[in-house]
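Hi support team,

I'm filing this because I wasn't sure whether my run with zinc ion finished correctly. The job status page said complete, but I'd like someone to confirm that the output block is well-formed before I use it downstream. Pasting the exact inputs I used:
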Amino acid sequence: MRHHASSAGLDVLPVSAWTFQVNDLDGRSFYVDLEKKACSCRQFEKLQLPCCHALVAAAKANIHIPTLVGKWYRVKVFGKAYAEFIKPVPDQPDDALPPLVQDAQFKPPEKDNKAGRRMTKRIPSAGEHMVKASSLLL
Ligand SMILES: [Zn+2]
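And here is everything the job wrote out:
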């Protein structure tokens, strides 16, 4: 639910009990229908995960957010998909390798050890909001 952070600054206007107009800071308007689980940004229908517009609309309508998540993400449905035996794929040796590949010599990349400590934190992309893992729990 990384969309929680981007839900901030959105303006929610109720249209009916289940539908909302959500305006963002860039002046764009989105139409959210919580009953149909749809938003005009199309992300809600496609992923069956509420987009930031749907999240703010759900907060306004006092709707429990997990009820908006598609059934495909439920543990029961997910478990059913893998309920059958999954047989291992037999080895398929590449016996038809072209001579160019067979004769090629692959050397490991030369090490380029730079001075200083290695970076452990990722630099977020433009417009990306880093969210703490603890806030991802619903
Ligand atoms: Zn949306």
